[in-house]
Amino acid sequence: MKKTKDKINCSLVQTIEAIGDRWSLLILREAFFGVKRFDIFQSNLGIATNILSERLKKLVKDDILQRTKDPEDARRFIYKYTEKGLDLYSIVLAMINWGDRWTTGEKGPPLFLHHKTCGHRLDAMMCCSHCGKQVHAREVHYEKNPNTL
Amino acid sequence: MKKTKDKINCSLVQTIEAIGDRWSLLILREAFFGVKRFDIFQSNLGIATNILSERLKKLVKDDILQRTKDPEDARRFIYKYTEKGLDLYSIVLAMINWGDRWTTGEKGPPLFLHHKTCGHRLDAMMCCSHCGKQVHAREVHYEKNPNTL
C-alpha cells in the first residue's frame, strides 16, 4: 500500500489540532454544562490559571469560544460558544456516551443524560443526515477529493 | 458554584484516557480505513516504530484493538478492532465531519465520505436513539447518578 498522505491530512487532524488536548476538551465540556466565567472554569476543573488562560486564548483564537463583557459585571469577561464551537457538541457527546458504555462499573456513569426534546435517557448515535439510519464503520466508503490531490 | 467533582470524573475523562492522544487517534483512523498490519500503520503515518509499538500495546491492553496471527503469514501479527474499539467510530466520524465543515478551504475536504447504505455523501449527526431526532447541546439535561456520589 502506498503512502496515503491525503488520509494523513484528513479533517481528523485539523480537529485534533483544535481540541485534541485534555484540558481543552474539559473546558469545552464545562462550557456545554453552562459555565461561562474564568473563575468557575478554574474552580470546577482545578486547573492552573496560566494553563486555563492559555487554553481559553487558543479556543478564542480558533473561533470556538468568544470572549465578551459579562452583562452582569462589566469588569469581568465571559466565554460563550460560537456556532463553530457549538458544533463540537457531537464529538463531546460521542465521547461521553462511549465512556458511559465501556468504562463505567456496576454503579453506572457519574451523570445521566436526558434528551429534553423527548424526555428519555439519552444514548445518542451517529446517523446519516440523508437517510436517517445509524452509521456503522463498515458502511462508509472513502473517496479522495480530486481537488485536493 | 461548588466544585463538581462528579462532572470532572465524567465519562469524557475515561474516553480521553483511552484515545486522547494524537497518535492513538490517527492509528484508530487508519484501522477504520482498513489497515491491520504494523508496517502499513508505520508507513501511512510516518510514525516512529517505538511510538507505534507503544501505542498499539496500549490500545490492545485497553481492549480497543486485538492482536492476532496474520492468517496470510503466520510470522506476522495483525490488529483488528474489538467491539469496544469499533464503537469508537462515532467519535472519529464526528471529528472528521467537524473538520470537514469548519477547517477545509474552497477545495473541500481531502476525503469524501459516502454512506454505502443509502449511497449519498455522508454528513453524519448525533441522534437520540429513542426519538431519532438530532441532538443539540441545549436540549440535554445532566443529572447526577446518586449511586456514584
Describe the structure.
2 copies of one chain form a homodimer. By secondary structure, the first copy, chain A, is α+β, with helices and mostly antiparallel strands. Chain A has a single domain (5-148), classed as Winged helix-like DNA-binding domain superfamily/Winged helix DNA-binding domain (Arc Repressor Mutant, subunit A, Orthogonal Bundle), CATH 1.10.10.10. Chain A has helices at 5-8, 11-19, 22-32, 38-45, 49-61, 83-86, 89-103; strands at residues 65-70, 73-81, 111-115, 120-121, 124-128, 140-144. In chain A, the strands form 2 sheets. Chain A has a two-stranded antiparallel ribbon with strand order 1-2. β3 of chain A pairs antiparallel with β6 (140-144) of chain B, so a sheet runs across the interface.
Percent of residues in β-strands of chain A: 15-25%
What is the number of beta strands of chain A? 6
Class computed from helices, strands and strand pairing of chain A:
alpha+beta
What would CATH call the homologous superfamily of chain A? Answer: Winged helix-like DNA-binding domain superfamily/Winged helix DNA-binding domain
Q: What is the number of independent domains of chain A?
A: 1
